[in-house]
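Input (structure):
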């Protein structure tokens, strides 16, 4: 069974997410390369760092280092995980997406991640009762609630995972739901 990591892992792209998910169970933020410079992306990372902690795992190349520096300048408390260029090499391509699960796990262990047991504060019932997974407005409701809670938009299944893994409290959730209801 894969280790479940408390911290949110920041990666460059979708292929990196796939590679990391083969090694560990964790929430991730994809920065889309240099789009990391967007204030909204940096704010999402900052929020995750304050809630659960963040581990930055970028490609072992110049661009990866620039992305790390951008994040660290905005959010100095992040942890860093590194793979070697050899571990991330596949032909001429160097990146996290090429690393095997053992190399990724070793890198994350070097960042001293915290293992957690699965948190189940929120359930599918919460999603349904609050119009977050069923109904014509559920997508918009998730979008608005994700903005209020600073966890971003996701489909129903991913949104539930974010609620449970970004450390959202029941009180915080209910307060945000009330704000949404007052807007409508």
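Output (sequence):
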């Amino acid at each position: 069974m894969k280790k479940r990591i408390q911290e949110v892992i920041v990666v460059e792209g979708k292929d990196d997410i796939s590679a990391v998910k083969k090694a560990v169970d964790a929430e991730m933020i994809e920065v889309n390369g240099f789009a990391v410079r967007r204030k909204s992306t940096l704010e999402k990372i900052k929020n995750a760092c304050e809630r659960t902690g963040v581990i930055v795992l970028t490609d072992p190349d110049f661009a990866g280092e620039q992305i790390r520096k951008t994040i660290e300048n905005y959010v100095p408390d992040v942890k860093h995980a590194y793979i070697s260029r050899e571990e991330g090499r596949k032909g001429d391509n160097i990146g996290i997406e090429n690393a095997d699960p053992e190399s990724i796990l070793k890198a994350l262990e070097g960042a001293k991640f915290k293992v957690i047991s699965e948190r189940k504060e929120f359930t599918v019932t919460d999603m349904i009762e609050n119009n977050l997974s069923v109904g014509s407005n559920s997508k918009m409701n998730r979008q608005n609630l994700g903005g209020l809670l600073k966890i971003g938009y996701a489909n129903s299944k991913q949104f539930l995972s974010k609620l449970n893994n970004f450390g959202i409290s029941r009180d915080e959730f209910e307060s945000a739901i009330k704000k949404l209801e007052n807007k409508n």
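Notes: The domain at 3-110 is CATH 3.40.1360.10 (Dna Topoisomerase Vi A Subunit; Chain: A, domain 2). The beta strands are 3-4, 8-11, 24-25, 28-30, 54-56, 79-80, 89-90, 93-94.
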